[in-house]
Write a structure and sequence with these properties.
α2 runs antiparallel to α4 and α3 packs across α4. Strands 1, 2, 3, 4, 5, 6, 7, 8, 9, 10, 11, 12 and 13 form a 13-stranded mixed sheet that branches. The chain is globular, with a radius of gyration of 21 Å. The termini are far apart. The longest helix is centred in the N-terminal third of the chain and has 19 residues. It has four helices and 13 strands. About 20% of the residues lie in helices and about 40% in strands. It holds the Pfam family LolA.
Length: about 220
């Protein structure tokens, strides 16, 4: 009988130790969100791929909700989001688009790689490991180790059918976002060359389009 109890005790200890090494996907995502919450500003290089085309930009973020993308491809294109207003300047069409964004669903799509966007994703999406909790290569061509998460909407009315995240486990920075809309279109965002907590003046998030550009308001969600 003593041997049986000893065996049960050993198995219990082993199971307890093993359980302590398991980090749930939700807990890991929470640690990423908390890490971004400690970032006051960041700059990074960004590439966005959709429909076989790739755009490149320098992205700047400043707490609490200022986000700007200055594109080198297409050159001089600008996207600016201040938490409520989305501004897009399209130089090839000499057009300036502006849209007030009020719903939490649409805001989550605008600021995916910010504390606000991560908090909204945690609220409106279920979170799971895409492969497992152990780091895996970012891609076949890039052996950098990341943790991969996959998010599914709790409500089918959300903007994205699924979101995949690739996160560097040591610094909790997002390296890649793959977001698929409810219409089946997929956007892939690659972040490189992060520069954290740098001095960025508020003026950087004020954009005046050229006086000759055509202005269109409330363009995004009109029928």
């Amino acid at each position: 009988m003593k041997k049986i109890f000893s065996a049960i005790f050993i198995v219990t200890l082993f199971a307890s130790a093993f359980a302590q090494d398991i980090t749930t996907a939700s807990k890991f995502f929470q640690s990423v969100s908390e890490s971004y919450g400690r970032i006051s500003t960041y700059e990074a290089d960004l590439s966005i791929t959709a429909d076989g085309k790739t755009m490149t930009a320098k992205v700047s973020y400043k707490r609490p909700s200022l986000l700007r993308m200055d594109f080198s491809n297409p050159q001089n294109q600008v996207i600016l989001f201040n938490g409520d207003m989305l501004t897009i300047y399209l130089p090839g069409m000499s057009t300036n688009l502006q849209q007030f964004v009020t719903s939490t669903t649409d805001k989550a799509g605008m600021d995916l790689a910010t504390p606000q966007g991560l908090a909204l994703m945690s609220r409106y999406y279920t979170i799971a490991y895409e492969i497992g909790q152990s780091p895996v290569p970012l891609s076949d061509d890039n052996q950098e180790k990341v943790v991969k998460l996959i998010l599914y909407p709790r409500n089918p009315a959300e903007a994205f059918r699924q979101i995949k995240l690739a996160i560097t486990p040591d610094n909790k920075l997002i390296r890649r976002i793959e977001a698929t809309t409810t219409q089946g279109q997929t956007f892939v965002f690659y972040f490189t060359n992060y520069n954290l907590n740098v001095e960025i003046p508020d003026q950087r998030f004020v954009y005046d389009s050229p006086a000759t550009s055509n202005n269109y308001n409330n363009f995004l969600f009109s029928e």
